[in-house]
Design goal:
711 residues; mainly alpha; 29 helices; 73% helix; elongated
Length: 711
């Protein structure tokens, strides 16, 4: 019966080889395979043999002459090439023996621990060193690795799609490839290298897990030898020495790997409460990746049957390809790290700055009144800016004086409880992220639209209040300046140049959008400052500072620490905004970029001062009205660009899919186009308090009937 089945199999192969499709592939591939297999030489140098293996892998994924087909056809074609190559070797036994000897000698001489414990994992101990290493590796050619299996593996599978090709190979093809490339001696050699990789990985995990920055964030505190990381090393050494079939040691190692992964989850919980560190986040992510790789290697080592072991090897190779391409790019490293950092920063600042959000009519009026104070003080900022020397000093000192003027003005506005229009508070992104729990539902999207309306109304109230205060305040200051000094705030040439610089026709929209980005960056600085204050535990440090307690007393030192914690974000945001507005044009012009800043309140004050300097007849000129429309565009772009950046940060922090992101952007634009006043003015009926319905009287027991004086 067995002989009959084998005869039928041979007949089926001959029948397939006689088909036109098979003959076409035979004629196309035979010449290429013969040229490749002729280069096989077990006595060649290791680099020559490695390059030959890379060329074989490149031939398997070579694009057809008639163009790139669809994904399914392309995968079928590559699998067909693989099977055809194996069939050709089966028919040419002499060539197969040479090819097999070349492959096995290359794999026997290759050093493999780095493939299992380094490929696809972060190499450096810190984020910025890893970032620099990847940039260098991307720009400069890599040196040839002498007998390095990791370098050979990454060169043979240079594309992420190679994992899909390997995943699509059937078990029979994988078995044929394994018999061609390896034997028992090679398998035993790689088991030893897997043991070395496990030892290396557990050493790297211990180096981070027992560090002070890691241990201080875990409760309860325990001695070093009692930590699960040291226990993992002890159990792993026992498992590696005991043999493959020791089930008790295997269960202990797997349990401790899970415990160590749970410890990293506790680190994330601590980061949510006490601030975020880029370096610590990177190390925790690195440890999680190393623990995952340990689990994969332990599963491969403990696989008993031959079929199960082959499946584990297959899964490990796919994981190595995916991890290498997922973690080797600079963009991927920065994207993963800063996405996690954005989420932690958003969650950390979610309870700061609620006074910036006007949710009803009363809060809208309060925001408007605060903006009136801010606009009045901004008029003095414009005055100082107008009398500062321009052109007579170095550009750096002009920017430094402007930064000092802006920063001191913004701090004064904040000190008197005022508000500066378009200034993006650190609460914007956290407030948006808090409403992104269920964007795939209509109710979740409605809540997000409502929060966006609240935030934009707050910005609109600040803009309206600033403009209504800065115009009369600037007129009064200009008249007082004329009577006191005898000359206007600006000379006619400077006044006319100021009006033309605000014209809608020109670079004003570009400058306004650039200023919106600066406003958003200042909000990030405020959030980072608040996060840094919490991460370094500065409140506790100030509260218990010996000299401060001796000078102020315990109670006053504690109040001082609370005041600093409450205002560190606001002060940092105001100072950073002043520096950005003052120094950004100087730095841009230093690099040859013709960029400037246009803030709606400062621009309005400048236009008012220019008109007061030129006289009332300037109101009838077309330049004035172009400047008026330019200011309207400045206000819209300041708010729109800064808010769009904050919305993008919140979406990134919540890992919202791109499809849902596009849905959110379209929903905001449609809502604004349909009813723009909802984003500018409050719904006054929200602030009205309706009387509660009368409750029916409830008869009380005699002992509970008491008069007000008894109570």
């Amino acid at each position: 019966m067995k002989i009959s089945l084998m005869k039928l199999k041979v007949m089926w192969r001959r029948f397939r080889r006689s088909s036109p499709e098979y003959n076409d592939h035979h004629l196309r591939y035979v010449a290429q395979i013969q040229a490749l297999m002729r280069r096989a030489d077990p006595f060649a140098s290791w680099n020559e043999r490695a390059n030959w293996m890379i060329d074989i892998a490149q031939w398997l994924r070579m694009t057809p002459r008639d163009g790139i087909p669809d994904a399914e056809t392309w995968e079928r074609l590559r699998h067909q090439r693989t099977r055809f190559l194996l069939d050709w070797l089966d028919r040419n036994r002499d060539t197969k023996r040479i090819v097999q000897a070349t492959l096995q000698k290359t794999l026997r001489e290759a050093v493999g621990p780095e493939l299992f414990c380094v490929t696809g994992l972060p190499r450096e101990p810190a984020f910025f060193s890893e970032l620099w290493e990847r940039v260098i590796r991307m720009l400069l050619p890599r040196p040839p690795g002498k007998q390095d299996l990791s370098t050979l593996f990454t060169a043979m599978f240079p594309k992420p799609a190679d994992a899909d090709w390997l995943l699509g190979l059937d078990q029979n093809t994988l078995t044929r490839i394994w018999k061609l490339c390896a034997d028992e001696a090679i398998a035993h050699n790689y088991r030893q290298q897997i043991d070395e990789a496990l030892t290396y990985l557990v050493s790297m995990i211990i180096a981070v897990g027992v560090g002070s920055e890691f241990r201080q964030r875990l409760e309860p505190r325990m001695p070093l030898q009692a930590t699960p990381f040291f226990a993992l090393r002890r159990e792993l050494e026992k498992y590696l020495l005991s043999g493959v079939h020791d089930e008790s040691c295997l269960r202990s190692v797997r349990m401790l790997v899970a415990v160590c992964q749970a410890q990293t989850d506790r680190i994330y919980a601590d980061l949510d409460e006490h601030g975020v560190s880029v370096s610590l986040v990177y190390r925790v992510e690195r440890m999680r990746a190393q623990l995952t790789r340990m689990s994969r290697l332990i599963d491969l080592r403990s696989a008993l049957p031959e079929e199960e072991s082959a499946a584990q090897v297959h899964a490990l190779l796919i994981d190595l390809i995916e991890a290498h391409h997922h973690r080797s790019s600079v963009q991927g490293l920065a994207g993963r790290s800063f996405s996690l950092l954005a989420r932690k920063m958003v969650e950390r600042n979610a309870d700061h700055g609620e006074h910036y959000i006007a949710r009803d009519g009363n809060e809208y009026r309060a925001m408007f009144k605060a903006a009136l104070r801010g606009g009045t003080l901004t008029a003095f900022t414009v005055l100082v800016k107008g009398i500062l020397p321009a052109g007579g000093t170095a550009r750096f000192f002009e920017g430094a004086f402007a930064s000092l003027n802006y920063a001191s003005s913004f701090l004064l506005i904040s000190a008197v409880g005022g508000t500066l229009a378009t200034k993006q508070p650190a609460i914007t992104a956290p407030a948006l992220a808090a409403k992104m729990q269920s964007l795939d539902t209509l109710e979740g999207l409605r809540k997000l639209m409502q929060e966006i309306a609240y935030l934009l109304r707050s910005q609109a109230a600040a803009v309206f209040g600033n403009l209504m205060a800065v115009i009369p305040a600037m007129l009064v200051i200009s008249l007082v300046f004329i009577y006191a000094v005898g000359s206007p705030v600006m000379d006619p040439a400077k006044a006319m140049a100021s009006i033309n610089s605000l014209s809608l026709v020109g670079p004003t929209p570009l400058y306004a959008a650039f200023t919106g980005i600066l406003l958003w960056i200042s909000s990030l600085v405020a959030g980072f400052a608040d996060n840094w204050f919490a991460l370094r535990k500065m409140r506790e440090s100030i509260t218990h500072h010996r000299r401060l307690v001796h000078a102020l007393g315990t109670t006053r030192a504690e109040r001082c620490a609370k005041w600093i914690e409450r205002h560190v974000a606001s002060v940092s945001g105001n100072v950073s905004l002043g520096v950005l507005l003052g120094m950004s044009p100087v730095l841009a012009q230093f690099f040859g970029l013709p960029l400037d800043v246009r803030h709606v309140t400062l621009a309005t004050g400048t236009l008012t001062a220019a008109v007061a300097s030129l006289g009332w007849h300037s109101l009838l000129t077309p330049e004035f009205w172009l400047a008026v429309f330019g200011i309207l565009g400045i206000g819209a772009l300041n708010v729109g660009v800064a808010f769009a950046c904050a919305l993008a940060l919140a979406l990134r922090a919540r890992d919202v899919p791109r499809r849902v992101q596009r849905l959110v952007y379209r929903a905001v634009l449609r809502r604004f186009a349909a009813s723009p006043w909802l984003f500018l003015f409050p719904e006054w009926r929200e602030s009205s308090v309706e009387p509660l319905p009368a409750q029916p009287a409830v008869e009380q027991p005699p002992e509970e009937r008491r008069t007000g004086s008894d109570r």
